[in-house]
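Input record, target 12 of the design panel.
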């Protein structure tokens, strides 16, 4: 007997757990409102039936009282006509209708109390349904918010935040490397251009100095060898430059040496 109870309790527990897990709050609330509305329809039908029955009893009572009064008049009429037997029969009919009217009056009082109670219950049920609808809307809104929050938390939980941030960090490092390469290429290009101009400037100065030395040597060697400079080659001194002071000194020294020859 104990084993059967334990198995029964286990089965009920599993069924309750399965039902609880399968319950959708919104569907359960909607079904509860539908059940209450069905009860309200049945209550209204019961109230309508009770009121109809009350009216019938009231009509029957009114009819019995009317019949009682009518037989009362007939009994008086029979006595006035000297017909005592008819008067007695009329009084018997009157008594029957009077008793029926009294019984119907008692029944009518009971039905009136029952109808009043049914009406109060109907009003209470309507109030509860109205309150339940308002509460249902609030609970459904809370359930929807809870579902949305749960879905959001599940989505956030499924996101691989560490891998995403790692991707950002890798891309940032890659972009920094690209920027560094670009800056280095720009610096190299600028340095190469500067070096080229420096070579051109240096080469120009050397060539200029070389031509000046050649011209000076030719002009200094002409008197000693008895040769005149060509007509199409006028002797021109290169313009002196402040930055070539040392070169000028060297040229002067060379000229002195050539004059001593």
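The sequence produced for target 12 reads:
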């Amino acid at each position: 007997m104990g084993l059967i109870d334990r198995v029964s309790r286990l089965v009920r527990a599993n069924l309750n757990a399965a039902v609880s897990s399968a319950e959708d709050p919104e569907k359960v609330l909607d079904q509860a409102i539908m059940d209450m509305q069905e009860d309200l329809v049945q209550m209204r039908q019961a109230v309508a039936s009770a009121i109809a029955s009350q009216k019938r009893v009231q009509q029957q009572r009114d009819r019995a009282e009317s019949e009682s009064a009518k037989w009362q008049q007939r009994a008086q009429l029979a006595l006035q006509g000297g017909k005592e037997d008819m008067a007695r029969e009329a009084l018997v009919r009157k008594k029957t209708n009077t008793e029926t009217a009294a019984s119907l009056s008692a029944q009518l009082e009971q039905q009136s109390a029952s109808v009043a109670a049914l009406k109060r219950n109907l009003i209470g049920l309507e109030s509860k349904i109205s309150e339940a609808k308002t509460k249902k809307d609030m609970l459904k809104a809370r359930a929807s918010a809870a579902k949305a929050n749960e879905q959001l938390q599940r989505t956030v939980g499924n996101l691989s935040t560490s891998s995403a941030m790692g991707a950002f960090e890798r891309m940032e490092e890659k972009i920094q490397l690209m920027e560094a390469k670009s800056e280095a290429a720009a610096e190299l290009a600028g340095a190469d251009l500067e070096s080229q101009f420096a070579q051109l400037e240096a080469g120009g100065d050397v060539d200029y100095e070389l031509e000046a030395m050649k011209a000076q040597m030719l002009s200094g060697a002409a008197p000693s060898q008895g040769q005149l400079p060509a007509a199409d080659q006028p002797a021109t001194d290169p313009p002196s430059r402040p930055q070539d002071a040392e070169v000028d000194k060297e040229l002067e020294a060379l000229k002195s040496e050539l004059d001593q020859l």
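Residues 13 and 145 are 30 Å apart (CA to CA).
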